[in-house]
Amino acid sequence: MFVLPPPPRYPSQAAYNLAVANGQAAPMIETNNILTHPTGPEYQLVVGEGTYILKEDLHLATPPPHPSEAPVINPNPLATTPQPATAGTKLSLLSFSSRSSAPLLYKVDTNRSTRSGGLQSSIQEHPSEGRPSGDLVPGSSDGGGTSMTGSARAPLSIGSAPAFGEGNSMLSAPATSKDAGKRRKPKNNIAKSNSSFISRCIVHENLTKRLQDRPADGYFAFANINRAFQWLDLSSPQKAEHLTKILFTKGHCLCHDINQSTKASNHIDLIMGFSTGEIIWFEPISQKYTRLNKNGIINATPVSEIRWIPGSENLFLAAHMDGSLVVYDKEKDDAAFLPEENGTHTNGDSEKSNGSGEHSAKLHVDKSVHSKNQKFNPISFWKLSNQRINAFAFSPDNRHLAVVSEDGTLRIIDYLKEQLLDLYASYYGGFLCVCWSPDGKYVLTGGQDDLVSIWSVAESTIVARCQGHQSWVTAVCFDPWRCDDRNYRFGSVGEDCRLLLWDFSVGMLHRPKASSVRQRGSVSSRFASPLQRAETQTTSASRLRSNSSPSYESDEDHTVEHPVEPRATTAMLPPVMSKVIDADPLCWVEFTEESIITSCKSGHIRTWDRPRDTTGIS
After folding, report:
1. Closest residue by Cα to residue 350 from 83, 544, 578, 593
2. Per DSSP, which regions of 384-437 are E strands?
3. How many Cα neighbours within 13 Å face the side chain of 501?
4. Which residue has the higher pLDDT, 232 or 345?
5. pLDDT for residue 503
6. What's CA 201's distance to the chain center, in Å?
7. Measured CA distances, 208 to 193, 234, 235, 242, 284 (Å)
8. In this structure, what are the phi and psi dihedrals at residue 526, rounded to the nearest 5 degrees?
9. Is the distance from CB of 464 to CB of 423 less than 8 angstroms?
10. Cα 513 from chain centroid?
11. Is the CB of residue 218 less than 8 Å from the CB of residue 322?
């Protein structure tokens, strides 16, 4: 017997909303972003230069699990079963306006800037105010996996740095098409994709009009939230409405970056790294994409950090969680990777005396960028250790790479020469984030020791530890609008839900060390030459074996494993501002000329306006 189906319980959206309000129906999972404007003293940051005020809170909707994922019923919080990798909301910011760039003072070659003492500029009210901002300068990036991509990171500071792989004829750029201004785009339409990797793509119905009507100096933001990825226009009054939203089937986007060399109003090259190890090259304006490392053919471990190589149109560097750094070409096909017999070499302190061991203290080149076998990806493949790489950042002079790992090491690498220069250890635990100062003199790290550490690259030593967080430090970033050649301002966020702002000046940092003279002798001994430092390297960090061959015997640039400096001999820096700014752990921070932007693991993007009387400072 045929029976008609029952009529719909709620014939209209209004009827459904009424039922929810009366408690007669369960609310649907929210799939729309929510924009709010909280006010009150708890949404203000009081610092020496004035008060930062929360402008808005944009809460990105967390997508429901994909139907193919079996829900976890009553999960055990103490379970040790491996969980799929995921990451909090991180942003890649993009502006086409030169006005968005960082102050010109810091767009100088690192090699020159470390020696130049003649830059006269100061905006500090106290000698202790200072800054660092790795991301707002060409070729540098913060450790949170997000890049500040205004013209701030346009390739203006490349200077004398050669291109990565220069001299290898097999890497020469393919012949350009008739129209030199026309960029090559990926092959597949993401909105019409039948790939099992992509669940759904939702494009705003008025996308073309919204792109045409927006102000030229506004910021685009690309943000990951769970298995979703959103393209937002932060300059629009309707910023809560995404321009494009992509839902992936099971893979979570963990990191992403925008190419500053190829950006144009009609073309954006974006790369995304996933928990499955796969990588997507996406061009959002044409909605085209290409998958790389498909099914993990080159490396099947999650991608924890991904960056375009500064100045390169095609090449980008991905950090995989097995301790590998892999360079890919966005336009090459993938092939199963095996280390090259003739190309494999190691680079590190112990390579001459102990060829078998100390893998964690070396840079192991399984495929060099100078290899002649460049028909397929990867372009190069470096193995750093057997523990995950958490973050890396390119220096402002586009010659060096700072890499931090779960094993508690900071490595400074000359990536053009594929050579390890320095290796430092954390106070304890792993490092989670890293960034360079805009002048390239200092590197910041944050990690599981709840500290932010300041390292001097030229002097190969730790300068200060910054104590103020009450949990792991997840992101660090310099503020170039509050910096000059001797004073630095930087910010950090952590799992304690706190934003901390810090000031330091070169002169101030050396004064506290005078108190350690009684315990350790002359302070100046810590700034001895590399030869003298190497002779005292008898003990190293607990996780690194001592080196049987002094580093100065290397015929290349010296590679030094630096021991952990005791607390008694290291300057301790307090924050100038510390405040809980969110209910959830924070995972990203960035500075723009007008504001500080933060994000948390549950998808709240908060914009804090700078004090009004100092917005014009540059």
Report:
1. 544
2. 389-394, 400-405, 409-414, 419-425, 431-436
3. 28
4. 232
5. 96
6. 25
7. 20, 16, 16, 13, 12
8. -75, -10
9. no
10. 31
11. no
Q: Measure Cα distances from 533 to 17, 170, 509, 550, 553 in Å.
A: 70, 41, 21, 10, 13
> What are φ and ψ of residue 302, in 5° steps?
-55, 150
CB distance 310 to 137 below 8 Å: no
Residue 447 has a CB neighbour count (10 Å cut-off) of 30
Mean pLDDT of the chain, nearest integer:
80
- H or E, element range at 500: strand 498-505
Give the SS3 label for residue 171: helix
Tokens encoding 607: 């914009």
Tokens coding 618: 């540059």
3-state secondary structure (DSSP) of residue 193: coil
Which two three-digit tokens encode residue 151?
A: 């013209």
Torsion of CA 551, 553, 554, 558, to 10 degrees: 40
Backbone angles phi, psi at 365, to 5 degrees: -90, 105
Please state, as a whole number, how many other Cβ atoms lie within 10 Å of the Cβ of residue 130: 26
**Cβ count within 10 A of residue 352:** 13
Tell me the C-alpha to C-alpha distance, in Å, between residue 447 and each of 2, 188, 273, 277, 414.
66, 39, 22, 24, 23
Bridge partners (DSSP) listed for residue 404? 391, 410
Contact 366, 379 (CB under 8 A): no
Residue with tokens 């830059």: 119
Task: Decide the pairing of beta strands 188-189 and 244-248.
Answer: unpaired
* Cα angle, residue 335 at apex, residues 333 and 337 outer, rounded to 5°: 140
Bridge partners of residue 247, in order along the sequence: 200, 228
Token pair of 387, please?
């523990």
Type of residue found at 85:
A
Cβ atoms of residues 315 and 331 within 8 Å: no
From CA 284, how far away is CA 270, in angstroms rounded?
Answer: 8
Residue 242 near residue 233 (C-beta atoms within 8 A): no
What is d(CA 476, CA 14) in angstroms, rounded to the nearest whole number? 46
Q: Please count the other Cβ atoms lying within 10 Å of the Cβ belonging to residue 416.
A: 18
Which residues, at least 6 apart from 440, have a Cβ–Cβ distance to it below 8 Å? Answer: 110, 111, 113, 114, 395, 396, 397, 400, 457
Rg (CA), the chain: 25
Q: For 180-209, what is the mean pLDDT?
A: 89
Q: How far apart are CA 606 and CA 592, in angstroms?
A: 13
- What are the Cα distances from residue 555, in Å, to 357, 368, 420, 551? 20, 20, 13, 9
Residue whose pair of structure tokens reads 């990777």 in the numeric block: 337
* CA–CA distance, 297 with 301 (Å, rounded to integer): 10
Q: Name the least confident of 30-39, 417-426, 494-503.
A: 30-39
Q: What is the rounded CA–CA span in Å between residue 135 and residue 436?
A: 8
Question: In Å, what is the CA distance from 199 to each residue of 91, 227, 309, 353?
Answer: 22, 10, 30, 53
Look-up: residue for tokens 């320095």?
Answer: 422
Continuous segment of H or E residues that includes residue 19: helix 13-21
pLDDT tens-digit map of 527-568:
333 333 333 333 333 334 333 333 333 434 465 899 999 988
The two three-digit tokens of residue 226, written as one number: 């769970």
The closest of 314, 311, 313, 309 to 325, measured between CA atoms, is 309
Contact 45, 499 (CB under 8 A): yes
Q: Are the CB atoms for 198 and 189 separated by under 8 Å?
A: no
